[in-house]
Design goal:
It contains four helices and no strands. With 101 residues, it is mostly helical. It has a single domain, classed as Orthogonal Bundle (Helix Hairpins), CATH 1.10.287. The protein starts with 7 loop residues before the first helix and ends with a helix.
């Protein structure tokens, strides 16, 4: 199911097709709420990491929350008809053109 050579687009399609029966991706408000929760959890893990940089538990929590945010963004983009991979690439190009990267 998961392979290292998959693209963001392939993961977006895979996640939505496998988990769609269990999640309501048509309810964008619910997905936005979930994203807000995941970002808050990432922020909390980041604060714990700054407070105790030698503790690996917060780093593991950050890794988990980043993955949760990725998954939630895949669902959000799908619910809105957005190609997540194209959005990422387009934004990187815009930032390069503006001299931000």
């Amino acid at each position: 199911m998961f392979r290292e050579d998959r693209t963001v687009r392939q993961y977006q399609m895979l996640l939505v097709s496998k988990l769609n029966p269990y999640l309501d991706i048509e309810n964008s408000a619910a997905v936005f709420s979930r994203l807000k929760q995941e970002v808050r959890e990432l922020g909390q893990a980041g604060i714990f990491r700054v407070q105790d940089p030698l503790n690996v538990a917060p780093l593991n929590a950050i890794e988990t929350e980043v993955a949760d945010i990725f998954n939630t963004l895949c669902f959000l983009c799908s619910s809105l008809g957005i190609d997540f991979e194209s959005a990422i690439k387009n934004r990187i190009i815009e930032n390069i053109q503006k001299g931000r990267l």
